[in-house]
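From the pipeline queue, job 12 of 40. The input is one protein chain; the requested action is below.

Action: predict structure.
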Amino acid sequence: MFGAYNHSAIIRKRHSMQHHAQPPAPSPEIIAANVRAALAEDVGDGDVTAELVGRDDQARAVVISRTRGVFCGAPWVVETCRQVDPYIHVDRIAKDGAELTPDGPVMEFSGAARSLLTAERTILNFAQLLSGTATRARAYAQAVAGTNAQVLDTRKTIPGLRAAQKYAAAVGGVRNHRTGLFDAYLIKENHIAAAGGITVAVRRARDARPDLIVEIEVEDMDQFGEALRAGPDIVLLDNFSLEETAEAVRSNGGRVKIEVSGGIRLDDVAAIARRGVDYISVGDITKQVEPVDLSMRFS
């Protein structure tokens, strides 16, 4: 359960949406910025309650899980300790992706009692949120096991924590969709209307940035046919029924990748996957997160 982790940059390639067995964490700079923001809003100019404890008092602390789940957040935990007090020692920490069991140990720390008290909430906030995201992602990944479909996350993330939540989703076993508005085209209804149609929008995207994935959203089979003729990399079926999804897969004949989206929940995803689609994008993974219940105990 316990193990080391490595920081590295997220690598993205055109046409890939790569999933890694052990996905790379965001850069140390991104993680440090996340932690600075969290400590600024929590600690401000000082932890007045922690000052009730003697300056030289030492303590040990263990974090346990009260529920089952998938752990995620080790880089943020370690960085929180470093920023609060570089002399906090992280004695043990679960490896991201490890299974959590009720009453099982997740992390252990030693150091100045004041520092551990100050770091406690920020450590737990990151670990609970990211573990909850990874746990939700794992459920979706398991639901489509045995099919050719891959579940994708979306941009529906907590502001300021997109890289963190996308990392957690990948730890849970789903693939990352585009990071933001800058690294792939996703041409939706309003883009189509403003550009003057599906065909012209796809052509302009190809001409402007031939290195980027071009995906276009369609709302019915007529639009789907036009999209196929326009030649994007991916066609996104928005709120199609299961029957319409199956029809689109048959009509496609393998010409483009097909993605499905629109209010998808865990109970829906297996049936959609069996229709033969390539991707299923699910906002629920990052926006309907139930944090894993973790508790820190001092000794």
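Job complete. Residues 1-20 have pLDDT under 50 and may be disordered.
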